[in-house]
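Task card 7
Instruction: Convert sequence to structure tokens.
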Amino acid sequence: MLNPELIIQVLEYFGNGDKYDIKIDYGCTTNGTYVPDSLIKYFSKYDVRAAISVDYIDNETGNFRGSGNSSLKWELVERNIRKLLNSNVEVKLQSVLSQETWDKYTYDLINFASQVGIKAIGLILSFDFNFYKIFSPQEIAHRVLEIYDYSQSQNVQITGYWYLSFLGIINPDDWEERRSWKTCPTIGRLLSVEADGSVYACKTTARKLGNIESFNEIFKNDNYKYYAMRAYTNSHKCHGCIIEGFCSGNCTGAVENEFGNIYSVDDNYCTTVKLIVDGLLKRYLSEISQKITVHKFV
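Output:
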């Protein structure tokens, strides 16, 4: 957002991809504190989706992030969100449930989304594995399912890696197209290009894949294969897991930084996700059963 001229040049140069016989989808992630008016019309023109990072809303202090809060407050972010929405820009909120946000994550964020017409909130579970030691998998799963239930009542969809695993089970046709990467897109689906042209599987991963100037060489690099094949070969600890094939574990970069390689898993995180998916499936089956019962009665 600090270089709007560059963003505009990219959008105007590539357009929607028609002249290259491809379809280009655009998205940006921002904390929402600075959204230049010069960009908004281009976001609307090229259907750029805006993901705004808001962990919670504290109406007393004006804070909205689990860490790194500054003199910039929620009022400013809210104003920018409304500007984007008024220009027909699709907005999604992105939040993190962590040790820092656990006590602050109330329903105010969901209520705001429902009020202004935002349809989805991404709820990321903390990438810090200590989170799963401070709070038990049962506590975290229960909290996520409570948040999910309330969001459903407000017509706001809560999503996250954990939700994608559930979605793959109940929508096998859609899953067919994306089964090769399951949850974390770093494995086989994402490239991150740094300002100097260096390419990584993700900004959070450690192994360099190459340089954007030698694009085709990236896919011949052993480091690329290391990340991409993780989509097809889970950790040995995943074998026999009840959701094996529908989950690829936590954030790849977080696993790599914690354990030294991406084929490791955290048992507490795995238990948390299984409990959440189990809860979502029970809710889904209950809804289906009620629909069948009503249909038969009618």
